[in-house]
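Example record used in the benchmark description.
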Amino acid sequence: MRLNLSELKKFLKKNLSLFITYLSILGIILVGNIIYVQAKIYTDIQQAESDYDHEVELEYGVPTLISEVSVPPGDKFSVLMIGGFYLKANFSNNNGSIWINDQNNETIWIDYLNEIIEKYIDVNSSSILRYSLWANSSTLGNETLYFTFLPTIYSGHNFGLGVLIVFVPIIIGIVICGAIFGKKKREKVMPWE
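Model output (structure tokens):
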């Protein structure tokens, strides 16, 4: 048993610094990707704060689909999901309602359009890939709604690849150690072979 432990210690001494360096580089790449995504989201929101991106005429009492947002499904090495929305809306002191429905047509957020709205709406589901923004006027006649509706899309890009890069070498190392120590153990038990 001492022989096995000493060989394991030698193996770890030789390869531990390599594994630590490897995992550090991987961590830097993944953190850099997250920082890039967050910086892009922040830039998009700053650009939207200066003015409204869209305008739409709302009729009295008619629910109107004014925007839809969806993300394409990720491949085996990346995952895209909507983490929330930046919404800025101005209905020029008219009355109405504004709400967000998910792909199952369930309302996840609602507010009233009697003042300027500017807020960030969190979404707590990674499985919903499509959302729609609806509005309804409760003021007689046709009135113009000005709005900006931006999704915050989180990218788990290379997350699956990162998992493979981290765990495959560990699994290979365990298999190699098992083969080395299993062979030594068999030699001790059956020295005549």
